[in-house]
Amino acid sequence: MYFIYISMMLKNILLSFLFIIPAIGKAQTNTTQYFDNKWLLGDKQHAAYYRVFTRSGSLYKVEDYTIDDHLLVSGYSDTLDIDISYNRQGKHIYYAKNGQKLREGNFINGIHDGLWIQYYRPSLNIEKKTWYVNGAIAHATKYTDTTGKITSDISYKEGKPDTVISYQYYPDGKLRSSTKKIGTKTEKEQCYSLTGADTSCETKKEGQTFKFVEQMPSPPYSMMEYLSDNVTYPERARLKGIQGRSLIAFVVMEDGTIEDVTVMQPVSPDIDEEAVRVIATMPKWRPGRQNGKPVKVMYTQPINFKLQ
């Protein structure tokens, strides 16, 4: 009897121990925090977001969700602190509420490290690749959404753009020109014909192209009204919520026609394409004049794309 009694006691203790261990393990490996719409720590009843920590080796896997369970961020941290900005470790992926990947890359002690990739919405094509060294940008490459071609290649020095190589393309995707700038100085400019042969970056007609003349060229109509009546907001840019100021350069020829339209300050491929189209199809201008004679003049025109 005594042996049976002891055996039953040991069995009950063992069962109790088995029930306790999972509960303790769960408390140690999973933690949930709730935040309001300003990411201030709060309670579940008033939360807009929540964060789940799950033990993963020496780190915690961190996942941020909207309160209706849409994943926003997935990554790692070495702490359960509320502010994990300085403790993010390893690969992180950021998502839109619809589940689309926005950007991804690596952290070391909360500092950007190595390659980070940013994606276009909704195409998921690569928009930008950025390389970091000790948290500072070392290099960045931007791409078009539709063709994936490089639009600019930027090297940084002490966190600031140092050498910039920009590319322009014909509508069929062939390279039109490349420009290399070091600081604000243009180091090299190369242009290509539709067949791919090297060609002059100056206008094809004879004569010097001026930037400033005694009598600058001007449109014989309201430029503001022309742009308002003719610019069509690209649908893809509208859906993405893209806005910005596209700066377009062009040459007003001796007869007032518009040629050599290029993008000086890009916004996005769709917006830049529309800006070029509108400028390239403008009616004739009054040509610029130097010493009483009509001459070719380079002109720049900003076009603002702003969603109402």
Q: Which descriptors would you attach to this protein?
A:
single chain; 308 residues; alpha+beta; TolA/TonB C-terminal domain; 2 domains; 15-stranded antiparallel beta sheet; five-stranded mixed beta sheet
> What's the count of strands?
20
Shape: elongated
Largest sheet: 15 strands, antiparallel
Distance between the termini: 87 Å
Q: Using the coordinates shown, work out and report the CATH topology of the largest domain.
A: Outer Surface Protein A, domain 3
Number of helices: 4
Binned strand content: over 45%
In N-to-C order, the SSE pattern is HEEEEEEEEEEEEEEEEHHEEHEE
Please state how the strands of the largest beta sheet are arranged side by side: 2-1-3-4-5-6-7-8-9-10-11-12-13-14-15
List the helices and strands and how they pair.
Layout: H1 2-29, E1 30-35, E2 41-42, E3 49-56, E4 59-66, E5 71-77, E6 88-95, E7 101-108, E8 111-119, E9 126-133, E10 136-143, E11 150-157, E12 160-169, E13 175-182, E14 185-192, E15 198-199, E16 209-210, H2 223-230, H3 235-240, E17 244-252, E18 258-265, H4 269-280, E19 288-290, E20 293-305
Parallel strand pairs: 16-20
Antiparallel strand pairs: 1-2, 1-3, 3-4, 4-5, 5-6, 6-7, 7-8, 8-9, 9-10, 10-11, 11-12, 12-13, 13-14, 14-15, 17-18, 17-20, 19-20
